[in-house]
Amino acid sequence: EMLNERGVHIFVDLNGYLSGTRMTIAALGPAPICLHHFAQPSTMGAKYVHNFLADKVIVPPEHAPHYSEKLIYLAEIFLSTSTRVTNPEALRWDPGHPHPRAGLDLPITDGPLLCNFNAFYKIQPTQMDVWLRLLQEEPSATLVLRAKGGATPECVLETLANASIEPHRVHFTGDLSGDGHSRRCAACDLVLDTDNFNGITTTATVLWAGAPVATFPTINNAGRCSAAMLLSMHASTLVARNREDYLHLLRRLLAPSARPRLLALRSAVASERLRSPLYKPRYLARGMERLSLSLWDLFRNADDQPASHHVSLASDASFLDFEA
User: Fold this and answer.
1) HSE of 292, CA atoms in CB hemisphere, 13 A
2) What is the pTM of this model?
């Protein structure tokens, strides 16, 4: 009733079908245009959701026929975070080297730390197999996982035993808040992304901390988010083509002779975070403003019919390119 009374033109859903969903409101048609953004990088499959905000990495144009919505493409990346404001401390660290590990619930070893701070349910057996192969090939490396208590450590240790890997090669770390977690991310030599369900918020936090993240895009959209972030930061070197190439990438980055290259990647990531639209919420706001005006113009020019066109924001943000 409130939305109708206020004459809202565009209703933006940020939650999709996740916990706390408000899709029942969208189903009532509270505005002429309903747009989905961020929560689920996949189609809502609902005729009352007219448009979907994306970029051309998270939703390649060839995937458009599989969407019930018309796609709205931002020029660089489909999301932006306020990490620059909430965690300015990360800008004070030396980006060229990992942060000291002491006091961050990390193992104090001479070897590299291969870290993953995603929720454990995102780690699938095929992903774990790749990481175990790395541990077998790199005897000085330690795998760091975010898991304290419960059945998770027991499950992982059983998997390590089956692969004949000693239990001390994995370290389970708990939750740290605020700057503590950011410093812990910065202390990692290399962060390993999960495949079919990427880190998303976690990846954005890690990159802001200045640590390199290795990933590869999968066919499903939730497995393409980290690639979109890295490409927005001109870090294509950290994006593999597929799972096998991902393993080769990790091997190259962890080779003893590659240490200078890995440090150079850290510096490049730290430099690009200051320019990337991923950390510039005003980029997203300006893009949303332009696209919203264009969507409304299209709606009026199509006899008040929503979702008549795909829309792309030009890379220089100076004009809009419409695609029928």
Assistant:
1) 17
2) 0.89
